[in-house]
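Table S2 (continued). Query chain:
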Amino acid sequence: MQCELYAEGHCHSCQWLMLPLAQQLEKKMAHLRALLTAMPVGQWCQPVSGAEQAFRNKAKMVVSGSVERPILGVRNRDGSVADLADCPLYPATFAGVFAVIKPFIARVGLTPYNVERQRGELKYVLLTQSQHDGSLMLRFVLRSAAKIARLKQELPWLQEQVPQLRVITANIQPVHMAIMEGEEEILLTPETALREVFNGVPLWIRPQSFFQTNPQVASALYATARDWVRGLPVQHMWDLFCGVGGFGLHCATPQMHLTGIEIAPEAIACAQQSAQELGLKYVDFRALDSTAWATGQQAVPDLVLVNPPRRGIGPELCRFLTDMAPGFIVYSSCNAVTMAEDIRRLAGYSIEQVQLFDMFPHTAHYEVLALLRR
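Corresponding output:
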């Protein structure tokens, strides 16, 4: 993939850009094998990869520059900024949307936030696209609500320029810290979610709900989990750290009892909407802490699927799962290091299958799916 920003030294996000994709995969597989070297693996499945560019469905842009000439991109460690409006990781349509957002920022008077001076209003611009119908969600992360009235006043102009914008919000993040978003979300449009469809399963993307950023590879990840689970004698399944329900909704059958737990209420609202649309009767999605909820249960499900954040599921949940001893555990992870640590803690389980998914090309990061059998 050719990238002028990388070639000119303005952006260093894609650390492995100069390596061919095949070599990137080899390095990732070698890393994963080294982490699991002391744990016998029944089957190493072939790694899954996708497109090398235009694969991201979301852009997280730091806003800098001036209100008249805003820069949407990234702030490097040396303090320099790079405009990523033409980043080749994004769909081609994003460049045109950013070209409209920049004058919109000036029309509203959204002064970019200055980190050093702790002044200004606009911190980030977050843009998400549905691969299902091309609709867009745009979120302005602001220091305060001071410009909300003006933002609403100018919104018709923005929507006329970019009619595929379905969901527009303002997120209020008042603290001077490297935090992407705050708790308060102000909806500026009647529609509140984007519709996505993976493998015939409807999924919904709302503000403040996590959604995979590589739809092509994420679709393959969910389909693989579905195939693994449906090949097992499973009537009752837990989906912990379930997000918008992608894994559980793929794996569930009309007769299966599925419980999905996720701490983010917005994500649970998405999962509930999908379950209703699919007509699943024995599904229960709850907005709770996964570890706290699980460790308070008495009944033993046939299978527990976990998809934790980078920190992993941790010692407490590992001890509980070891003692409770479900027949199967499916572990999905974006951090193979913590996953390997957790699997070592899960006494009495063997690794039946492992598969790597190259969710993040041109970087050292990857997703991995593992099936554990008691």
